[in-house]
Design a protein that fits this description.
Length: 107
């Protein structure tokens, strides 16, 4: 009974607020994403055997920033996305074998 009452309350609030103008509900929380920014110094395409024994193409990219370097492996052939000696920001979802690109921004 309490569950049904809660459902009606939520539905009523949505209906009431939608009559007042624009209502926008967005989902922006995604804690599984990462961002890296740096100058692209090395781009290397290779095949990697994943944990499930399947061979996957991985593009390893080395970023230089603030005197240190970080290398990230991106799934697939992403060589065209990472121009050498350019400042690049990569938003991605880390994975077990490689990272899935969300967006690449060349600065």
């Amino acid at each position: 009974m309490q569950r049904l009452l809660s459902l009606f309350l939520v539905a009523g609030l949505i209906l009431a607020s939608s009559s007042c103008g624009n209502v926008e509900i967005n989902g922006a929380i995604n804690p599984g994403t990462s961002t890296i920014t740096g100058f692209v110094s090395v781009v290397h395409l290779t095949s990697v055997i994943g944990g499930d024994g399947v061979t996957v193409l991985v593009t390893f990219v080395t970023f230089l920033a603030e005197g240190s370097s970080t290398t990230v492996g991106f799934c697939g052939d992403q060589t065209m996305q990472f121009p050498l000696n350019q400042m690049v920001q990569a938003n991605f979802t880390p994975g077990q074998t490689c990272a899935a690109i969300i967006v690449i921004i060349i600065k």
